[in-house]
Amino acid sequence: MNFKEELQQRTAYAEEVIRKWLPEEEGFALTMAQAMNYSMCAGGKRLRPILLLETFRLFGGEGEVVEPFMAGIEMIHTHSLIHDDLPAIDNDDYRRGRLTTHKVYGEAMGVLSGVSLLNYAYETMLRAFSMTEDSVHVIRALQIMADRTGIYGMLGGQSVDVENDGKPIDKATLDYIYEHKTSALLEASMMTGAVLAGADEEQTKLIGEAASAIGLAFQIQDDILDVTCTSEELGKPAHSDEKNNKVTYVTLFGIEEASAQVKKFSEKAVEILDRLNNKNEFLEALVREMAERRK
């Protein structure tokens, strides 16, 4: 398997799916639709929809019912990026190599387009009911998405992050932030893919544990890249953690120990995937790539 070629193909497919489900730029709400689509079409790795799709395939899933969930998870993720970049939070001017949404459309439209994307994600995913007769799996997938997105998931982690911005925090608090702000959406992606394909409760639970480990490895690697890469390499401001006085695994433990933690969590994720009877060579390679990436 040529991983780079396979990844390019899947990224292109995810991009095609995402654009297919975007709102029309028309009517009185034209500007908000443009702001939403500006952020959604800014590129990016599309890791969450790819993880969702590959877990769907891991359990033998077939058909287009997965598509609105692929688009929906990227809308949820992009909404969080729009709001992260706002002056009230990280106050960043660049994301994915170009101006952030609020710098192009204004702060008010940045807030509104982010909220609208979050809502539109569920509007999109609800359309899956018309694409399958298996409503039970769609309902369970929506429950997972909602749980991992709200106060007990991504937004809960974001709130703790914002509340402790610039303050000294311990490892337990930092882990809570990472497990909710980052891991939760990866859990949503992979668990949703598993459920839509018919995985049972035990299999779905294992996938959630693997996704949690992947999220921790991914976020800690992000901490490392923030201090070792340039803004040009990252496509966003480097050293932003230092600028915002954020506590990270690097500030708590140093780069060497942080790197060791990345390896530990990525190996844990692969070990869990190996325990499943189902195999997906590309998915395992992607997990390793996410932990070893350089941007």
UniProtKB/TrEMBL annotation:
Reaction(s) catalysed by this chain, per the record, are: isopentenyl diphosphate + (2E)-geranyl diphosphate = (2E,6E)-farnesyl diphosphate + diphosphate
Ranges that cross the membrane: none
Lineage, top-rank taxon, reads Bacteria
Q: Name one GO molecular function term.
A: (2E,6E)-farnesyl diphosphate synthase activity
Which cofactors does this gene product need? Mg(2+)
Query: What Gene Ontology cellular-component terms does the record carry?
Result: cytoplasm
Provide the GO biological process annotations: terpenoid biosynthetic process
Gene3D superfamilies, alphabetized = Farnesyl Diphosphate Synthase
Recorded E.C. number(s)?
Answer: 2.5.1.10
Keywords assigned by UniProt?
A: Isoprene biosynthesis, Magnesium, Metal-binding, Transferase
Q: Which residues form the signal peptide?
A: none
- Similarity comment: family membership: Belongs to the FPP/GGPP synthase family.
Protein name from the UniProt record? Farnesyl diphosphate synthase
Organism per entry: Blautia obeum
